[in-house]
Automatic annotation (TrEMBL):
Source species: Blautia caccae
EC number: 2.1.1.-
Record protein name field: Class I SAM-dependent methyltransferase
GO biological process assignments: methylation
First-tier enzyme category under EC: transferase
InterPro entries: Methyltranfer_dom, SAM-dependent_MTases_sf
Residues covered by the Methyltransferase domain: 31-142
Length: 232
C-alpha cells in the first residue's frame, strides 16, 4: 500500500486529509475486506477496528492486516446493530463507504449505534451512492435507455426492498449468488437519522458522478454520489 490512500476517490481523499487522525482511534462499519480502513491508517491513526457481519470477509481483512504487519488494526465479525457496548465512546472517527447504508432497513438505530460508539467531538463520514441513483435503471435492465438518460424508473420514496441474486455489483463482476435484500433511503432519511442520533451535520456535498455501479449517467446533471460529515 505505497499509493496515497488507494480505494478512495479524489473528493474523499481531500476531505480525509483535512481531518486530524494523529493518535486517534478509528473505525469502519461494514468494512468488507478491510482495504479502505487499512489504507486510512496512512494518515496516522493509532488504532483501528473494522466491523462487518460477514465472517469470511473479516477473515480476509485479518489476513491482509497480518501480512501488512498492522497489529494495531483489528477486525470484528458481528451484526453492526449489535456491536458490543464495550466499544461505546471508543472512536474518534467512524467511516461508512460505498454500498453500506443500503443493507439497513431503518437508519435511525444504525446512526444511534454510531453515536454510541463515537467519543464526544468524534466525526462520522459517509461516502455513498446518492439516493437519486435508486430511481435510475442500470445498463442491462429492460428499462435502461442510453438515448434517454433523464428517464427515471423507480420512485424516490420506494419502500419495497430490492432483492437480487447477481452478487454485490459494486464490489465485483455480476455472478449468481444467494439473495441479497437491500433498501432505498431518501436524503431526508439520512440527515434525520444522523440528527436524531445526536450528531450535527458539518458538511454535505453532492457529486455528478457514480462511485461503483455505472458511468452511464456521469456528468449528466444528476446527483449520483454524496459525502457527509457529522460531529457528535
Amino acid at each position: 500500500m505505497h499509493e496515497r490512500l488507494p480505494f478512495f476517490c479524489p473528493d474523499v481523499i481531500k476531505e480525509l486529509e483535512q481531518i486530524d487522525f494523529k493518535e486517534k482511534t478509528i473505525s469502519q462499519f461494514c468494512c468488507n475486506n478491510g482495504r479502505e480502513l487499512l489504507s486510512l491508517m496512512q494518515l496516522g491513526a493509532k488504532n483501528a477496528v473494522g466491523f462487518d457481519i460477514a465472517e469470511n470477509i473479516i477473515e480476509q481483512a485479518r489476513d491482509t492486516a497480518e501480512k501488512a504487519g498492522m497489529d494495531n488494526c483489528r477486525f470484528v465479525s458481528c451484526n453492526i446493530l449489535e456491536i458490543p457496548e464495550t466499544y461505546n465512546g471508543q472512536f474518534d472517527f467512524i467511516l461508512f463507504t460505498i454500498g453500506a447504508l443500503t443493507w439497513f432497513e431503518d437508519l435511525k438505530p444504525l446512526f444511534r449505534k454510531v453515536s454510541d460508539c463515537l467519543k464526544t467531538g468524534g466525526i462520522l463520514l459517509v461516502h455513498d451512492f446518492h439516493p437519486v441513483m435508486n430511481m435510475l435503471p442500470l445498463p442491462g435492465e429492460p428499462e435502461f435507455d442510453e438515448k434517454h438518460l433523464n428517464k427515471t424508473t423507480y420512485s424516490y420514496f420506494r419502500k419495497e426492498p430490492w432483492k437480487e441474486n447477481e452478487g454485490m455489483g459494486y464490489m465485483s463482476e455480476t455472478y449468481k449468488s444467494k439473495t441479497f435484500t437491500s433498501f432505498s433511503h431518501t436524503m431526508a432519511d439520512i440527515i434525520s437519522g444522523v440528527s436524531c442520533a445526536g450528531m450535527r451535520v458539518l458538511k454535505l456535498e453532492e457529486f455528478d458522478y457514480d462511485v461503483g455501479l455505472t458511468e452511464a449517467y456521469d456528468k449528466k446533471g444528476l446527483p449520483l454520489s454524496f459525502l457527509l460529515t457529522a460531529e457528535k
